[in-house]
Amino acid sequence: MAVVNGLQAATGTQLENLxxxxxxxxxxxxxxxxxxxxxxxxxxxxxxxxxxxxVTAEMESLDNxxxxxxxxxxxxxxxxxxxxxxMDPKKGIEFLLQQGLLQNTPQDIAAFLYRGxxxxxxxxxxxxxxxxxxxxQVLKAFVDLHDFTDLIIVQALRQFLWSFRLPGEAxxxxxxxxxxxxxxxQLNPNIFSNPDTCYVLSFSVIILNTSLHNPxxxxxxxxxxxxxxxxxxxxxxxxxxxxxxxxYDSIKAEPFKIPEDDGNDLMxxxxxxxxxxxxxxxxxxxxxxxxxxxxxxxxxxxYFEYTTDKEPRGIIPLENIQVREVPDxxxxxxxxxxxxxxxxxxxxxxxxxEGKVVEGKHTVxxxxxxxxxxxDEWIACIRQSISxxxxxxxxxxxxxxxxxxxxxxxx
Length: 411
Hints:
By secondary structure, the protein is α+β, with helices and mostly antiparallel strands. The chain has 15 helices and nine strands. β2 and β3 form a beta hairpin. α10 packs parallel to α15.
């Protein structure tokens, strides 16, 4: 009993001394084992307490699922709808309507596109450009969400054209820019005599942006050339020179920012490319095949080593060029560009291994597509780019309309 009382009263070093004094080695070893087991039991008890706390929290959460669960499910469905929209805009909108996440009104769909949360700006542009009465109502509602009040035309265009990517088709561009011009004139009634003037000037600004900042355009337009391009578009009169000068200076100082969905900056021109994708390209001297990312735009064919490259490895202007399908023993689905007009070499440029720009020495450029249908589409797009672009015919017709002095109607 004295030993027990001594152990209870002792602490720290005193306790260890008493253990060594009164307990046999076997008893001391047993005490160590008891302490170890006690520590394990305390740890297990704490783990059980933690698990019980987690289960209790989960049960309380389940008891409060009601609105939170519905919100979580709604968020999940909305995320799925955005992914579907980015793959196929029409099907994505249909899915969101079926799930009750959008109302089937132009205003609600336009607001969804205007917010743009998680949406591909290319897909937004494709959807807005569709030709149907309902899509045109969505486009108008989308444009109406922009406030261009007291903005100069360049500022308004920067805002508008950052909210989506222009589609490639001329007819879609026409509808979208016409709607923009009507909205701008509605909010700024005393600047232009009619929306056609705003429409033509807007395109002149975009063309100016392309000409000033596209590296393949060697002769940069002067202010005088820009003014001459816009002569007589304001109901037969000219836009004031100071306005055109401020537009020119703004675009020269800062090009339009291009909304890219994947974060890279491939485009050197403003318009959405006529076509882009991977092709195999045959080298000139060694005839080896290398995979390159091609972009067809502005009557030029650009190719890059990677989609993330900011500068092209080569530029092939489609001047005095033809395209033809060719067989190749080593690669399927081949086609090639070749020079016409008695010129042996294609006028092109590329960067060498040191990054210097050198003139290309190709008599032909041979490419290979992954599938026959893809090859046929490339050939058709290149031929169309070589022949003519309907966009310029469309713009010429609108410019002629804007120059008519009899048109005085304001929006």
